[in-house]
Amino acid sequence: MKDTEYEVIKDIVERQKMGIKKYGTTVAGNELTLRQWLQHSYEECLDMAIYIKRTMQEIDAQYSAKKDYEKIHLAPVDATLFAGYTNPLKTTNPLKGKE
What is the per-residue pLDDT across 7-62, written as a single tens digit (0 to 9) for each? Predict the structure, then answer.
C-alpha cells in the first residue's frame, strides 16, 4: 500500500513546479491581495464541488445498475412456477423397491 502522506507531498511538489512554470513564481512570491487569494480559493472550492458531485453521480449510477441487475437476475424464484416439474436429468435407482 502506498504511503498516503508521501503521495500528497509528491503532489504538492509537482503542483509547485507546475505553478512556477506557469506563473514564474511560487505562491509565496505572488503578490495578490487577500481578496484575490480568497477568490482563487473560492473558485477551487467550486471546482472541487463539481468533481465531488460528478463522482457521487457515478457511484449512484453504478449502485443503481447493480440493484437493477440484482432485481432481474437474483430475484427470488416463485416455487409455483415449477409445480409438477420433474427433472429429466435426475437419475433414479432402478433397484429401489425391488429388494
Answer: 999 999 999 999 999 989 888 888 899 999 999 999 999 999 999 999 999 999 99
C-alpha cell at 41: 480559493
Residue with cell string 513564481:
25
Contact 19, 27 (CB under 8 A): yes
Question: What totals of helices (H) and strands (E) does the chain contain, helices first?
Answer: 2, 0
Alpha carbon distance 45, 48 (integer Å): 5
Rounded Cα distance, 88 and 91, in Å: 8
Q: How far apart are CA 26 and CA 20, in angstroms?
A: 6
